[in-house]
Design brief:
alpha+beta
């Protein structure tokens, strides 16, 4: 497949997954969402590293254009990666900003922070969903 076509396919899927993640956060209970996120992929594809980069690029690109928050981005990326058999972890963390607490969600594959990595450095990890079983 040509690179231009591949980009379009990933951007289209990322758009759909971000819409579905936003709808899920609005209408589905958090317990069900995080129970789903805690399951690993049905099959593991150890040779799909390039696809992981494409997924993260597409989610960040579409998320920036639609001003999506970090949790829908992380859920959408987690779903896309899981669908491809790539083991990822959805991480939730908090940090203190003055007198208030700030929350952030990001995706990790192995030790690398991918989706939401730019803001994840100052946050203390509270919960991790997914990963290899």
């Amino acid at each position: 497949m040509k690179a231009k076509t591949l980009r379009r396919v990933y951007l289209r899927e990322a758009t759909i997954m971000l819409v579905l993640a936003r709808l899920a956060l609005r209408f589905v209970s958090p317990a069900r969402i995080f129970a789903w996120a805690d399951r690993g992929p049905r099959r593991v594809d150890r040779f799909a590293a390039d696809e992981g980069q494409w997924v993260c690029w597409a989610i960040e690109h579409v998320g920036a254009r639609t001003h999506a928050l970090c949790l829908p981005r992380a859920l959408a990326a987690h779903a896309m990666l899981r669908r491809r058999g790539i083991v990822s972890q959805l991480c939730l963390g908090v940090a203190r900003e003055g007198t208030e607490l700030a929350a952030h969600a990001w995706i990790e594959i192995g030790q690398r922070k991918l989706v939401g990595a730019s803001g994840a450095d100052g946050f203390t990890r509270l919960a991790v969903y997914g990963g290899a079983r």
